[in-house]
Amino acid sequence: MKPDIHPSYRPVVFQDTSSDFSFLTKSTIETSETIEWEDGNEYPLAKVEISSESHPFYTGKQILVDTTGRVERFRKRYGDTGSAPKAEAELPEAELSEAEVPEAETADAEA
């Protein structure tokens, strides 16, 4: 390795400001603040807004998207764009010809 081109890799304390959670790890981040850790030593302090302690994915407080609401908003905004003919189930029985009646129904009628 070339000398004097790599940042110093040292222990650093990261503190989650939203949940007051802290952890000690190694990093090359440059900080101006320091903090005394549980072991009595002083380490550089890096403050972060989100960590595993406060992130919605890791805490289980993730908001699920309501896909039904999205579909309803789409239909409300753009209307019913489908112009498909009515399905056979929606037609009254009188409109069905004898050829269109399913075989299971004709077998029941003959018995």
Protein architecture, described:
With 111 residues, this protein is α+β, with helices and mostly antiparallel strands. It has a domain at 10-59. 22% of the residues lie in helices and 23% in strands. The protein has 3 helices and 4 strands, in the order E-E-E-E-H-H-H. A 4-stranded mixed sheet has the order 2-1-4-3, with no helix packed on it. A hairpin with a 5-residue loop joins strand 3 and strand 4.
Please state the CA-atom Rg, rounded to the nearest Å. Answer: 33 Å
Please state the average pLDDT score. Answer: 75
Helices and strands: which structural class? Answer: alpha+beta
Biggest β-sheet: count, sense, barrel?
Answer: 4 strands, mixed
Number of helices: 3
Provide the spatial order of strands within the biggest beta sheet.
2-1-4-3
Give the ordered list of helices and strands: EEEEHHH
- Assembly type of the chains comes to single chain
Give the strand content.
15-25%
List the uncertain runs. Answer: none
Assign a percent range to the helix content: 10-25%
Shape: elongated
Record keyword descriptors for this entry.
alpha+beta, 111 residues, 23% strand, elongated, 3 helices
